[in-house]
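Entry 14. Structure prediction run on the chain below.
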Amino acid sequence: MKNIIFIFKSAIDDFSRNKLRTFLTSLGILIGVFAVVVLIALGLGLKKYISDQFEAMGKNTIFLVPGRILSGGGFSGSASSFTGSFDNRDIEILKRIDNVVSVGPLTLKSIKVNGLIKEDFADIMFSSEVLPDIMGFEIETGRFFDKTDVTKRAKVVFIGNKIATDYYGSAENAIGQKVTVNNVKFMIIGVTKSKGGGGMGGPDYDSYLYGPYTTGYIFNPDKKFFRLMVKTTNENYVAQVKEDIKKEFLKRYEEEEFSVVEPTELLSAITSIFSVLNLILVAIAAISLLVGGIGIMNIMYVTVSDRIKEIGIRRAIGARKSDILSQFLAEAVLLSSIGGILGIALAYFGVFFAQKFFPAYIDLLTVAIALGVSSAIGITFGVFPARKAANLEPVEAIRYE
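Output returned:
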């Protein structure tokens, strides 16, 4: 134990005499560890965010989308002659299926809106009264539109929290305000709690307006929907309802023209894609760790050359080859560990600031792996110069000029 303490104390003393060289040598490891940890943190945050979004939809939800989007557990990407337009007949078919509680058609329009303090463009989503339940929306103030509003084709909307705060200052101020959508006036009846999103190209539900799909016929005269959402009695009936939907829809469409999927299926496909992408990015970032390791090896060879006489004297007064090997190996490990610790610390600061815009986080496993990898790099790239130092003949080392 005393020998180990002496070895590391000696290494620290050597580093303190060459502070700049120590820092520059550790810099490669620092950058590599920082990049890897931050990318892993972003990947973990993205996976959690996507998972939370889908979990909010509930386990008894089914989506109908155009085309064959899932194949073998992933997105098939296959094209379809189907234009992506479901209609009212499809809604009636779904309502007649056993254990279907409600159906929510979706229409999405990007249009010019007046009344948001200034004229602006916004996305407005038209659906049924089941939309808040399926999408996991919560009301902050006011109310959602209900079945009566849908039946009467009421010109009402509830809006995302971001629109309320950006254009009206607060959710309370937005209630009762009128907005004109393509010359049609709507009254704001509710504001949702902040749901987040909008990062990595995802939808920002806090920046949408939401209205009854029947009122949306004004902008959708063909009465077509790009997606249908189905709520079942409970999750035990999901599998049977999916089969019943497929059976009924195959009477109207070809098999390649529509997909019946659960949120968990979409979640699995999306996370698998992001996991592969994140793995590739981490692998690219890890190249800088390799460069940092080569830097450590180079500087350790220089250190050995500078301390040949010292090595010879130590061997002459009784130091064993293993002592010399341990000394230089400890210095290499310490160099890489310093870089690893600084990299993790910097990553924590980076992720802390990133959390204001994206739900990234660092877990203990990532920290342990980062420290383990940085130490392993020190051992791997330090062993060659350490062996060179240990194998020097004492007499030749003392005579070295």
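Residues 74-83 have pLDDT under 50 and may be disordered.
Filed with the rest of this week's runs.
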